[in-house]
From TrEMBL:
Keyword field: Repeat, Transit peptide
Repeat (PPR) residue spans along the chain: 132-167, 231-265, 299-329, 330-364
Family the UniProt entry places it in: Belongs to the PPR family. PCMP-H subfamily.
InterPro entries according to UniProt: DYW_dom, E_motif, PPR_At4g14850-like_plant, PPR_rpt, TPR-like_helical_dom_sf
A Pfam cross-reference name: DYW_deaminase
Organism: Urochloa decumbens
Coiled coil: none
Domain called DYW: residue spans: 545-637
The keyword Transit peptide belongs to this UniProt entry's keyword annotation: yes
Name of the molecule in the record: DYW domain-containing protein
DNA sequence: GCATCATCGA
């Protein structure tokens, strides 16, 4: 009985809505101008439809809400923000027929959001006489996607409920991403269960994504495993989650399962799998993915991911061949190629690609210029770097931001112009952040300037008192200078704060399996043969003049111990593993979590000569291609 | 007729 009463009025309301909608559609346009306007809003072109608004106004005619909504959508696709404001002003002054007024306003709010004008969207929202679940969802979603407005999105959700509007699947799938802590996410998850929306595919993929982004892999996994029905996006979410959290093997495994479950290898999943390969330097797996990519020749995102994978795996031949063959290229393709070349020590080519890009009329973005400046700094091209930095605003309309300033400090610092770098920092218009000081600190270490290093480290610690990197670099600098007391003081400060130095790790792919080596750790099942091989290699390269450079051991220890520490650096273990297992004629590809030390660099150069093998090592920022006794970085890194 | 999830470059 009770429920009947509740249902009745709602059904009636729906009936009235339906009939009014029918009226809107069937009512013949009483005026030819209105008929033309309606037709233009369906067929376009947008400018012609827009141009009719003043005529309608002066004729005293009211446009129907359906056409106005279509016009707003056209505006998002083909128009500009000021066209949008024009429509908004027209609607505000002349209105729309009443039953559809709310929908028109909603589409205007959404339009402002899509143009990135959140403030305008909120202002319109505030002034609206009525709001429905769509209105609220549009705003909640906009806040959830804006930087630093996640809490506000959650507050809007509360306000929405207080206003008597119940969130639906659209709302939840938007707001889940705004949950910044596991607790909030768990509560929101519970809400979706309570209203029975947790099985909605949109909500489910948001849940998975949010759990993964907060680092709760098991949480994401369990939402996924409970799934009875899902779509390919849900699969993509879980695969992307594993790929992004660095579990490439898990991502691959899920990808195979997805195919087993009858889903084809779609673009989203392939892109995520490529990302996993990119992170793990699994070139062979990446090549297999490439075979699947062939049938999506129009998918730029996928091709860009493939391009990046080849660059990050150090295979510039593949990258270059793909880049030439790509049916379309956008600025991301170009930027990827420029950075890829620069990171692989081919700065001059990176700059030529940049020239080519400009000559093809593609406008660079701020990221492109980061790549260009990176190329300059890693090749010691101080003059070119200055030129691009100084002229980027005039030539491309891109104002130098933090990253570009950082590249300049790197450029000057690497080149040994430490005083100039410091002067640059003091004179720059932005407030120097810890990243900049860290760059200067790195340069100080490279050029063994302990005083300036100490200054830079103090600046970092002022901004970030618990910064591990600053303390490590500072103590390493002291150690480089054999100032053991200062080094020890710095280490002690770290220990007191409970900090530990991250151990060096290297990864290598062998027959689609990834092997990890940790410095000083001989627990790998093949350790015996690896140590044997290491001894053999050291014997061979000693004949070429190799002497362990114990000054790269940053602790005050007896020489034998230093040699042992050096010998078992993770990249040496990986190289020895590589030379025993690598295929004839194929390069040995290694990824590292820390920068390569000078001794390992010399070691790798000589091994490339004595064994006639190409060794490629990728560290967090760049690559070293060792061949025939030389490195692509020209010993400048 | 308006609002939702995943996938690319420093």
């Amino acid at each position: 009985m009770n429920s009947l009463f509740k249902r009745l009025p709602r059904n009636r309301l729906a009936a009235t809505r339906r009939s009014s909608r029918r009226r809107l559609h069937t009512q013949p346009h009483s005026h030819p101008l209105l008929a033309t306007f309606s037709r233009l809003c369906v067929e376009g072109p947008f400018p012609a439809a827009l141009a009719l608004l003043p005529d309608l106004a002066s004729a005293g005619l009211r446009a129907d809400p359906v056409s106005l909504t279509r016009l707003v959508k056209l505006c998002v696709r083909h128009g500009t923000a000021s066209d949008g404001r024009l429509i908004h002003r027209h609607v505000a002054a002349h209105g729309a027929l009443s039953p559809g007024g709310l929908v028109v306003s909603n589409s205007l709010v959404s339009m402002y959001v899509k143009f990135g004008l959140l403030d305008d969207a909120l202002r319109l929202f505030d002034g609206m006489p009525e709001r429905n679940v769509v209105t609220w969802t549009t705003v909640v979603s906009a806040l959830a996607n804006a930087d630093g407005k996640k809490d506000e999105a959650l507050r809007f959700l509360v306000a929405m409920r207080r206003d008597g509007v119940a969130p639906n699947a659209y709302t939840f799938s938007s707001v889940l991403g705004a949950c910044g802590t596991p607790g909030v996410l768990a509560a929101m998850h519970a809400s979706t269960v309570k209203v029975g929306l947790d099985s909605d595919v949109f909500v489910r993929s948001s849940l998975i994504d949010s759990y993964m982004k907060l680092g709760d892999l098991d949480g994401g996994r369990s939402v996924f495993d409970e799934m009875v029905t899902g779509d390919s996006v849900v699969w993509n979410s879980i695969i992307a989650g594993f790929a992004q959290s660095g579990d490439g093997a898990g991502a691959m495994e899920l990808f195979m399962r997805m195919k087993g479950a009858g889903f084809s290898a779609n673009q989203g999943a392939l892109t995520s799998v490529l990302r996993a390969c990119t992170g793990m330097v699994t070139l062979e797996v990446g090549r297999q993915v490439h075979a699947h990519v062939l049938k999506y020749e129009k998918d730029l995102i996928l091709h860009n991911a493939l391009l990046d994978m080849y660059c990050k795996c150090g295979s510039l031949q593949d990258a270059d061949a793909l880049f030439r063959r790509m049916p379309q290229r956008d600025v991301i393709s170009w930027s990827t190629m420029i950075s890829g070349l620069a990171q692989n020590g081919r700065s001059t080519e990176a700059l030529s690609v940049f020239d080519l890009m400009k000559s093809e009329g593609v406008a660079p973005t701020c990221i492109t210029l980061v790549g260009v400046l990176f190329a300059c700094s890693h090749a010691g091209l101080v003059e070119d770097g200055w030129y691009y930095f100084k002229s980027m605003e005039k030539l491309f309309g891109i104002r130098p931001e933090k990253e570009h300033h950082n590249c300049m400090v790197d450029l000057l610092g690497r080149a040994g112009k430490l005083d100039e770098a410091l002067k640059f920092i003091h004179e720059m218009s932005l407030d120097p952040d810890s990243v900049i000081w860290r760059t200067l600190l790195g340069a100080c270490r490279m050029h063994k300037n302990a005083n300036l290093a100490a200054y830079a480290a103090r600046e970092i610690l002022k901004l970030e008192p618990d910064d591990q990197g600053a303390r490590i670099l500072l103590s390493n600098t002291y150690a480089d200078l054999r100032q053991w007391t200062d080094a020890e003081k710095s280490w002690k400060a770290m220990r007191d704060r409970g900090m530990k130095k991250e151990p060096g790790r290297s990864w290598i792919e062998l027959e689609k399996q990834v092997h990890v080596f940790i410095a000083g750790d001989l627990s790998h099942p093949c350790s015996d043969s690896i140590v044997q091989e290491l001894n053999r290699l050291i014997g061979r390269i000693s004949a070429l003049g190799y002497v362990p450079q114990t000054e790269f051991v940053l602790q005050d220890l007896p020489i034998e111990q230093k040699e042992d520490l050096l010998k078992y650096h993770s990249e040496k273990l990986a190289i020895a593993f590589g030379t025993t297992h690598a295929m004839e004629g194929k390069p040995i590809r290694i990824m590292k979590n820390l920068r390569i030390c000078g001794d390992c660099h010399a070691f790798a150069k000589l091994v490339s000569k004595s064994e006639g093998k190409v060794v490629i090592i990728r560290d967090p920022v760049r690559f070293h291609h060792f061949q025939d006794g030389a490195c692509s970085c020209g010993d400048y890194w």
